[in-house]
Amino acid sequence: MHRSALRATERAHRAAARSWDGTASGSLASTLKDKAAAAHLERADSYHAKGLALDESLASSPRGSAVPTPSDIEAFAAEGDLVPNALPSPRGVVEQALHSAADMPNGEMGISRPSLELRVGLIAGPELEAGFSGIAEISSITSANYLEHLGEIDLLIIGSDTLEPAGPLLDTVLPAFTELSVPTAFFSNSTREDAENTLSIALACDLILAVDHSALATYQEFGPSENAVRATRTPVSPVLHTPVGTRPARTEMVAFYGMDQATASARLPLTEAVHPLFDGVLAAARPAAFLQTEPGTHGCHWMVPKDYAPWTLSVREKQEDAIATQLPVLQRASDVGIAVNAVLDSQTLIDTRVLQLQASGTMVLATYNQGANSYYPHVYIANAAEDVAKTLQYLSVEELRKIQGDGIRKAFLDHHGTDVLTEIARAAGLEASPHRDRVLVVADELSAQLREDIAAQTYSPVAITTWSELSQFTVGSENEAGDFDILLPLSSSRRYSPFYAADHVAAFRYQGAPVTTKLQGSVEETDHAAHQHRSEVVDLSLSAWWRPSPGALESPEALLAGNAEGRVYAIDHLGHRAPSSRRVIDDSVGSNFADAQREFAATAEREGLELAVVVPIYNNGDHLRHKAFASLRRSEMFDRMHILLINDGSTDASTIDTIEELAHRYPNVSAFHHAAGGSGSASRPRNTGLALSSTEFVTYLDPDDEELDDGYMELLETLRAAPEADFALGTMAVWSHRYSVLDYHAWFLPGVEHRDGLNWPNPGTLKTLNFRPASIEALVARTEWLKSLGLVQPVGAVGQDTYFFQQMMYYAKAYAPVYRPVYTYYGAVDTSIVNVVSPKYFRKYLILELARAQWLREVGLLQDYLEQRFEAFFVTWYLEKYEKVQEQDKAESAEVLHQIADAYGPIQWTHPRAKAFFHKHPSGDSSSAS
User: Fold this and answer.
1) What pLDDT sits at residue 13?
2) What digits encode the pLDDT tens for the residues 713-727?
3) What b-and-e string marks burial along 187-219, b requiring 16 or more CB atoms within 10 Å of the CB?
4) Residue-wise over 775-807: b if at least 16 C-beta within 10 A, else e?
5) Is the peptide bond before 90 cis (omega within 30 degrees of 0)?
């Protein structure tokens, strides 16, 4: 029997090795598979050897000898089931996570967002059903059961992700409800390309709603009327996806839960998007499970790549274990989750799981999507496996909770299913009153700092009062508007961050307690109590109250007594601090340059810093925290960097708060503030940052871009090893509507001499290279050399970094190449200046072109620039942008384009588009259309 057990175990390990074996792809996954397979084979060989030894021992025993006892065969005992270096199965990982989350409380409707008294019939896939779960009386309708629901439905919604065939919907279901005057709405959660597949159903409904703006345009083109086609948002329901009871996390698991299959997902770039994400999770050595996604509509079915088969849970396994019905529990049970976006090029349509995970209080690791990058900067975009792994390994609990808090707030303020359904119902002509969450601030005394904090809130209070005057305000109710809905007691002995009120407002939307509170203490001291219900308010100045009784408004004591045995929801410890914990910035004055110069130099010397990273900032604090700074934070040389946060006069208090928080927390981070107002571009803060740099090396990084895979460290080390080089230059990875890499070294190959591992420009290099620039974010320069050039980026200009690099290339003796992307540029940030076209946009370029034309004259390259580059750039950039200008701004924009052309003197235009433009707009007197 023992011999049989050994042989059975040997066979099991060889089978396991085969299951882990696969085609080598060079990815991290294949390396891990090889490692695990080798471990299983090693154990199988061990069991085989034991079996042979046991056989030999028994064969050599004298016939008729005593039966071997357990002690006799102890040397041949099996070694157990655990195999060193072998990873647990995805099924086991998921089962363990579900077991750990067994006592997690169920989700509930928010006290400020109760279920709607509305009967809704829903013909949709599981994602839209999840978004509306519990929001109203929801009935799942099919072409087989619709007769059972006739006369019992107030509104019929058909989702674009439905698997119901179009024929029955058009021929029987829709006509039946229309005959009973039930309004019908089509909810599109797909792209413009996929909209054509559902156009017939959409046009048969009374109302068409689209998440994707390009799909919206298609429906508007064919829709019955302009009012019948509207934009909408993807809904999230707190009944299924909620942070309640999720701290601390119940499991270390990092899982992929599938993806939306209602889009043409075959376009998904695996190498640039999925492999870095999945490989990075595996490299972090966290328990991982990739759940295979179910087939979608229109024949679309994206599969988890076969490289990850050992970590993949099949659709059949999910069904056998009923895991599909428990996905919301799994999403809530872990700190980190994975999402794959099938759509790259939409600012509004992102994978539903990105929102579900945020609502669940889970940090999201995702593939690139324009909207996720623009509006959810706290969603981590995977660009390199090493960066993903470092993010998971180095992320502190404090940073993790901030990311998760931003996601919770965003999900429930912008995507609450009740708000989405209310908008749909009202658009369909049904009675549905919009919900109110008006905040009234009450304080012991209204100090100047407290007033400043209140004015800075991202969720603005309707009024501010003191306890002595509170009785003058009336509380709202379901039937009466009153003056306010949420009472927010504050204290002048605290400072409150700009998102403080918003956190309380969001919490009332996803849970049912009438009182919420923030916790006092560090994350280590409070994490066990965060996102839990409790029975008391410890500190009134950290609480918020949903529609307290009129009698409770008499005094602080009366308010506390009104909830003596009530239910209180503890959110987290974030958003408040002691007044003395940070310096106070007078944004009307800004920082003193001389003082900052001494302070920055002292910091660099004290901390032994080597590389200054100049980060120009204007009203983009969220991107600063979660994009640029997060990428630097995970660098191996972060502690040797001097991060210079240069505020260009931001008017957004949240941005200023973020800058000061980072500067206060990290000793190698310094902040400088220009007076409020802004200069109009990144030029001024970049100039200031260079002037304040006192390290040996310097580089630049915009807040919405990211260092890639320790690129700056490689640039610095390369430059340090090449004393004759003035800067080291890498390449740039770009995400816009697709992924690409700008290989500067291939561009510059014809124009530089290659010697001793360096590239040596000459006075004719710019001309030879057709004046093609590289990004200054892709290089590290010697600070002393760069300062010695006396270059100034034109203040208020855009595109100034390309001009700056042209000048650097002209003056450089030599530069050291690094042949890989060192940073990621996100080229489709929806709020970026380069994506907003107006006369102001062209005026910013006029500042640039005036400066560049003057410099080209000084160095004798103006005529070469005109002959080789200017006209082509004018046509392919300026005239392309001009086509996107609104009609009322065309004339003004055309005049500015004339001024840009005039900066270079008389021009003989040859391109047909240029000639046509100046013929149509002849106001310029220095340009000829001949």
Assistant:
1) 63
2) 999 999 999 999 999
3) bbbbbbbbbebbbebbebbbbbbbbbebbbebb
4) bbbbbbbbbebbeeeeebbbbbbbbbbbbbbbb
5) no
Cβ atoms of 579 and 495 within 8 Å: the answer is yes
Residues of the chain with pLDDT under 70: 1-6, 8-10, 12-13, 15-27, 30, 32-33, 36-37, 39-40, 43, 47, 54, 57-87, 226, 262-270, 296-300, 564-565, 830-836, 923-930
Looking at the structure, tell me whether residues 33 and 127 fall in a common domain. Answer: no
Do residues 657 and 497 make contact, with C-beta atoms less than 8 angstroms apart?
yes
Domain that holds residue 46: 2-86
pLDDT, tens digit, for every residue of 211-261?
Answer: 999 899 889 888 777 679 999 999 999 999 999 999 999 999 999 999 887
Per-residue pLDDT at 493: 94
* Burial call 585-622: b when 16+ CB within 10 Å, e when fewer: bebeebbeeeebeebbbebbeebebbbbbbbbbbbbbb
CA distance 57 to 55: 5
On whether residue 335 sits in a domain, the answer given is no
The pLDDT score that the predictor gives to residue 65 is: 53
Nearest CA among 886, 888, 801, 891 for reference residue 837: 886
The residue out of 833, 862, 885 marking a domain boundary is 833
| Residues recorded for the chain | 930
Q: E strands within 410-555?
A: 439-443, 463-466, 486-490, 495-496, 515-517, 532-534, 543-546
The backbone torsions φ and ψ at residue 231, rounded to the nearest 5 degrees and listed phi first, read -80, 150
Place of tokens 């209310």: 422
Residues 43-76: b if buried by 16+ CB within 10 A, e if exposed = bbebbbebbeebeeeeeeeeeeeeeeeeeebeeb
Q: Are residues 825 and 847 located together in one domain of the fold?
A: no
740 and 614 belong to one structural domain: yes
Supply the Cα-derived Rg of the chain in whole angstroms.
32
Residues 13 and 136 in one domain: no
Q: Are residues 684 and 564 part of one domain?
A: no
Residue 116 and residue 235 in contact, taking contact as beta carbons nearer than 8 Å: no
Task: For residues 896 and 838, give the distance between their C-alpha atoms in angstroms, rounded to a whole number.
Answer: 11
Question: Rounded distance, CA 43 to CA 811, Å?
Answer: 63
Q: Cα separations (Å) of 498 from 451, 589, 653?
A: 12, 21, 7
Number of Cβ within 10 Å of residue 87's Cβ equals 20
The 10 Å Cβ neighbour count of residue 924 is 18
Placement of tokens 């946060």 in the chain: 645
Provide the CB-side half-sphere exposure for 884 (13 A, CA): 12
Per-residue pLDDT, 296 = 60
Residues 6+ apart with CB under 8 A from 411: 236, 241, 355, 358, 359
> Is there a single domain that holds both residue 442 and residue 469?
yes
- Parallel, antiparallel, or unpaired for β 543-546 and 515-517? antiparallel
Q: What is the pLDDT of residue 46?
A: 75
Question: Is-contact 799 694, C-beta < 8 A?
Answer: no
pLDDT at position 26 is: 63
Helix (H, G, I), strand (E, B) or coil at 614: strand
Give residue for tokens 């376009």.
267
Count up the domains in the chain and report the number. 5
Question: Can you give the pTM of this predicted structure?
Answer: 0.90
868 CB-near residues (< 8 Å, 6+ apart): 767, 770, 771
Among 817, 833, 849, where does a domain finish?
833
Residue 28 lies in a domain: yes
- Find out whether 712 and 633 touch, Cβ atoms under 8 Å: no
Q: Which two tokens stand for residue 593?
A: 């340059």
Enumerate residues 6+ apart whose C-beta is below 8 A from 804.
776, 791, 793
DSSP at 484? B
Farthest-apart Cα atoms in the chain, separation: 118
* Per-residue model confidence (pLDDT) at position 190: 87
Q: Which residues pair with 207 in a beta bridge?
A: 185
The tokens describing 592, both together, are: 């003193």
Please count the CA atoms within 13 angstroms of the CA of 749 that sit on its side-chain side. Answer: 5
